[in-house]
Amino acid sequence: MRVDSCGTEKIGQWEMLPDTCLLHIFKYLSDNERSKAALVCHHWHNIMRMPCLWRCRSFHFSGHRSLKQSEYVAAEGYAENLGVFLERLEVTVCPPRSMVVAQRLHSTICALLNALVRVKAPLKSLSILRLELDRSSWDRGLRNVVVDKLIYFLLRSASRLNNICLNGMRIGTQLGFKLISAIIQNQRSLSPLCGLSLDLRGFFSNSVPNHLNLNIPHMLQQLQGLTHLGLSYSCLSDELLLALSQSNRARRYKYGRGNILQRFSLFCTQNEPHQQVVQGYSWATLVSSCPDLKVILTVEQVIDSQKLVRILLPEIPIMVYNMTAFYSADENWNAKPLLRNMLPCYRHSLQSLTLDLSNRRKSLDDELLELVNVCECLIDLRIWAFLDVRTVGRLLHIRLTKKMSLNKIRVRIYTMAENTEEQEYQLKEVLSPFCYPPELQFLAVICPFI
């Protein structure tokens, strides 16, 4: 409402907007901007209290001592005042470099969880990322209190969690089992049974050979509603796969196919132990109990072909494969066995492929093109490598001449030249004859190798 020079009230354009439009606009405002907007008029104040604006929230806590204390206090204040609306919460932590920052993080996380219990927050999704509790800055007392407070929240809160992500927590086995036990109890309190997505990638400390611990299969087997599971590869064992298979058969018989494992995400890094040898039979048994199972495998800096052979078993129904070997210390590493012999085994299931390779001394153009040509279900392709510019044209030719679902293509061509103008011109010439269909999202760029 505005008043003209004659004192007559007239309706402004903003006041003519329906509530649906205002809500859509307010979703893009920060907390501070929303507070100011709530003071404009009674109508906007009432709109700002609608639950749909406050159901999702993310906080990022830095690991530096210079961080303003107000950024920590804001998290507790949000939970106290608006936690009653909160359904999805994500807390991302930059691992603390000093004990002072660790103490501040400890106080903030504990206060946040206490407030969520107090206001009976209806959380459905909780993510706490990259705590890295095995760092020296977390002394034993702080580490134990943070885990105990999280256990308290899981057992006492009013939340009906169907998504729990504790990626990068990196704790010892004893504390880890206590926390998983609390998750099991939280799920058992839910009625009716709802599907659970549980991400435990990087949950245990890297220094522990978790594949030898039989408590991990036993505990995960007790999660009756588990539909999505994320683990570090160091936790994988034949015993785990067979335990999941047995649990899925029981749930499939009791609840139907909707409440069995559907997605299995595995994260494998160079720093993890890879001594375990998982048998293809164990994977085949799991797949038989979960006919719709899809595996998402992320491999970082694992370039030993013998290790990759042990990991990439043909019985695994890999849907997504992500690999980074960009910072490889071994310049003589050859990715050809991976592209020629290993990945083609998944030509009937692979839908998304991301490869970041530093193949400066080895040409991989033909191998990459042949892999794309044989993958029947590929939808999303991202390649970052040293390639011939003409390979991009050959790739587009395959996509446009075959009946493929490949509608997302991203290619980054590495070059050692500082001046990329000549290669960019060549790329433009290669792409100029092609006419892309509207459904194809395509991007190719030249990038200096740093």
TrEMBL record:
SMART domains: FBOX. InterPro entries: F-box-like_dom_sf, F-box_dom, LRR_dom_sf. Residues 11-57 form the F-box domain. PANTHER family: F-BOX DOMAIN-CONTAINING PROTEIN, PTHR20872. This is F-box domain-containing protein. It comes from Ataeniobius toweri. The lineage of its organism: Eukaryota, Metazoa, Chordata, Craniata, Vertebrata.
